[in-house]
Amino acid sequence: MALLQITEPGMSTAPHQHRLAVGIDLGTTNSLVATVRNGIAVVLSDGKGRSLLPSIVRYKADGSVDVGYAAQGAQSADPRNTIVSVKRFMGRGLKDVSHIESMPYDFLDAEGMVRLRTAAGVKSPVEVSAEILKSLRARAEASLGGELVGAVITVPAYFDDAQRQATKDAATLAGLNVLRLLNEPTAAAIAYGLDNSSEGVYAVFDLGGGTFDISILKLSRGVFEVLATNGDASLGGDDFDQRVYCWILDDAKIRFPSIEDTRHLLLKAREAKEMLTSHDEAPIHAALRTGEQVNLTLKIDTFADITKNLITKTLAPTRKALRDAGLTVDDIKGVVMVGGATRMPQVQRAVAEYFKQEPLTNLDPEKVVALGAAMQANVLAGNRAGADDWLLLDVIPLSLGLETMGGLTEKVIPRNSTIPIAKAQEFTTFKDGQTAMSFHVVQGERELVSDCRSLAKFELRGIPPMVAGAARIRVTFQVDADGLLSVSAREMTSGVEASIRVKPSYGLTDDEIAGMLKESIDNVGDDVQARNLREQQVEAQRLIEAVEAALAADGGLLRVEERTDIDEEIASLKKRIAGTDHRAIKAGIDSLNAATQDFAARRMDQGVKRALTGHKVIELKL
Amino acid sequence: MSVTMTEKAAKHVANFIAKRGKGVGVRIGVKTSGCSGMSYKLEFADEAAPEDIVFESHGVKVLVDPKSLPYVDGTELDFAREGLNEGFKFNNPNVKDQCGCGESFNV
Fold this sequence. Notes:
- The radius of gyration of chain A is 31 Å and the shape is elongated.
- In chain A, the strands form 8 sheets. In chain A, strands 1, 2, 3, 4, 11 and 12 form a 6-stranded mixed β-sheet that branches.
- In chain A, helix 4 packs across helix 10, helix 12 runs antiparallel to helix 13 and helix 12 packs parallel to helix 14.
- Chain A has 15 helices and 28 strands.
- Chain A starts with 20 loop residues before the first strand and ends in a 10-residue tail after the last helix.
- Chain A is 36% helix and 25% strand.
- Chain A is an alpha+beta fold.
- In chain A, strand 1 and strand 2 form a beta hairpin.
- By secondary structure, chain B is an alpha+beta fold.
- In chain B, strand 4 and strand 5 form a beta hairpin.
- The mean pLDDT of chain B is 84.
- At the A-B interface, helix 2 of A face helix 1, strand 2, strand 3 and strand 7 of B.
């Protein structure tokens, strides 16, 4: 007969109606699937009792696919068709992927996302990720004895719209119903926050295989809120292996090792690193193809010494995240450790020293994200009583905004806003009789659109002709719980509407995000300058157009020398617009304004006269 | 009249309750539903109701409401592993026939 699980009181399901839901940590190096069973979150293992699934997919010429350990074995024999770390390509264009030249794949630049040419045909990163998800789904269904109603899949907090969408597409392709995309640090906090039911501000310190992320989260009354995130996209456990590897080469005086020897020594380096988490020294023995023998002992002090600055490198983003959140170390109530690399004692020590407290390590740092995702999936699938229900708030990594006249960015939703969120702002027309408006949605912190990432463009047509500034166009930005953006624009008097679901052609790399954030801080002065300049340029342009329109209509009201004066002012202002001195433009605007003051007054008189001519006083409703 | 657990089942239940952090035992019952008329209820019990009949095996309490008892009397709850799947099994002597998967039954 069927195997039953113990449910929460009153939550028994009808037969054949189990709400089986899982949490999936779709990692760069390894992936995991977890579920809540008998009230407890557990990671599901494969038939051999292994909980990790290496995020590796191998395409074979007969069209079949190997995933995980089976693919890992073929990595060196068939590198071109064995895709590792596909997460780095999700939602990215060819030019977004760093170090692409050192990768063994046959890349194709396609619209939107990079593609990989394999023995089984051209594959997109979405398809490759879908293979990993399919494998996890099969494992989950075999373990739970039924079909899944849905899954919560975790993504890095800094993943942009394109990367989130790509992740969602991969899940759909794998036949998974996505209950929600969840930020990885938030998942870790869930795993700890609910198990230990403690409230306060927490830091999530995630040092994985190749990436480092720090997140500041606030937990209160069962509500999770991400206050800030930061990190380093190219810092992880692998860098520690690399340091040990270099030390081996140095100490054993090995020069230019072959690719096989390099791989072999890197493996030994990793073993030594792992051994040092519980021992004071680790022996390193290796026989190289050249016949050389390596017999070394790595002492923990030496290891600490050669990896010291890697640990220091984690602290700068940590400081920045705290500053972004407007907090100090003293505000942090607990530090959650995520990622296998946080098992290293000196990492734990450095974190403890910086935060002036021992980090939380009682859950397995490699599993904690999947466990939290499983707990969230359990809630979303409806397996918990209403009273325990909890809400989840996440954050937008970079500000979302629109391009306004002059190539300026108008931020609509600022960075670190919690999602889901909807914000509206009113815009207006720039020219008389303007019937259409084009919207350019951008993401980034800089003042100029050209320095931000373009996400999407759309147009609102059918605006009734009105004088400049009279139309009221309400633009609404909405970011759903998965962090996906839709933008709509509506002209308020006529009700015409246009909207777009932002599925950007490609995303920002995390390096870019980090870079863009840094630039915005470095360039505050420049940006203010640039903004002033653009504002004055736009204002001058507007004034010239207004004056020229008036001259065309009522130029006859001016004497010749008056007309020459105004024309000269216009010409001078036009020249200044082309320059970069916003003060000069401002002066030009003021002087054109002054030169046209009489003209404006005469036009007004004439307008009044026209309106009154032929009417008796009695007809006027004064 | 009794409802019992195998030692293995009792150990798992005790472990689950400990990790869950609360609960006095496990509640067993039946519901009228499913393709063969009735189905089992297997839940954590946060407190015993006054009318509950409480059994104890291997130190773990099993709570049964009086209406369900006739249908589950003599049942032994076991914990089993089938491939990657694992969970609880009802060995219920009252069952005359059950649906293919055994999730619902008739007495």
